[in-house]
Amino acid sequence: SATTASSNSRHRRASHQSISTRSIFTQNCRGLKSDSRVTEFVSQLKERHVWAAGLQETWRSGREDFTEDGYCFLGVGPPLQQGRGSAGVALVLSRSATSVWQSAGAVVHDDLGPRVIAAPLLAKDPRTRRPLGIYLMSTYAPTSAGSDTEWDNYYSAFSTGLARMPAGYVLIVCSDANSSIGRGSNDTSALAGRHNAVGPYGMDHINASGRRLRSFLELHQLASLASFFRKPHYG
Q1: What is the pTM (predicted TM-score) of this model?
Q2: CA distance 60 to 129
Q3: Which residue among 2, 115, 174, 194 is the one 20 to 30 A from 154 at the CA level?
Q4: How far, in Å, are 9, 83, 170, 220 from residue 91 at the CA level?
């Protein structure tokens, strides 16, 4: 995941619901083609009190906007899936998250191709009670077998989606990046170490797509959030 923040949103009205402190999840689904799979997935979100989720590899087709057991499913995929499916991304919003999505105008950026989707949400900061704009994205990168054209199209769509973020909003990107980014900075200077795109935790391995992702993060002043927190296991 990647995140950056800005707090210039005091001009917003303070009448919106606050974001749950519980969770924003990201998940590669490996397919949600059937109604039963969607129902099962939403039941898990409810059980874990998930406020919003970014999904990748839904294997679903076209643009979608429907409700399942109180959760709003906003999805986009290829016009036609081949075989079991590929690509497809979605945002799934709880009732509370749906309300603040509607407060921001119920805008969904689902015209960026089958690998990128984004939506602005206008909530409240649970600590300060001030308006808090959240720009939630879900992206799914090509695999290592993807062509240069596929990768170029993906990053072009990603950049376009980022450019649509309203001023003052906090960015949260839920992503299956299909990249090994290593850990720590390539620049050993003390100043660079304080502004890394990649933190000290994770695995040392880095590949070509990981180097490209690191460059993209640095260019857009983003960070791989998970790499700044120690986890029990890496793989």
Answers
A1: 0.86
A2: 38
A3: 194
A4: 23, 23, 16, 22
Angle made by CA atoms 117, 83, 93, in degrees to the nearest 5: 25
Q: Tell which phi-psi region holds residue 191, choosing left (phi > 0), alpha (psi between -120 and 50) or beta.
A: alpha
The DSSP annotation for 81-131 comes to --TT----EEEEE-HHHHHHHHHTT---B--S-TTEEEEEEEEE-TTT--E
Which of 198, 193, 226 lies closest to 210 in space, CA to CA? Answer: 198
Instruction: Give the pLDDT confidence score for residue 207 in this predicted structure.
Output: 93
pLDDT tens for residues 37-79?
Answer: 999 999 999 999 999 999 999 999 999 999 999 999 999 999 9
Write the single-letter amino acid at 173. V
- Is 209:217 a contact under the CB 8 Å cutoff? no
- At 134 the three-state DSSP class reads strand
**Which residues lie closer than 8 Å to 181 by C-beta, 6 or more apart?**
198, 202, 206, 210, 213, 214, 224, 227
Q: Which two tokens stand for residue 161?
A: 């989606």
Tell me the residue type at 118: A
Give helix 208-219 / helix 148-163 axis angle, nearest 10°.
20
b/e sequence 140-153, b meaning 16+ C-beta within 10 Å: bbbeeeeeeeebeb
| Number of helices and strands in the chain (H, E) | 5, 9
- Which of 89, 21, 24, 18 lies closest to 53 in space, CA to CA? 24
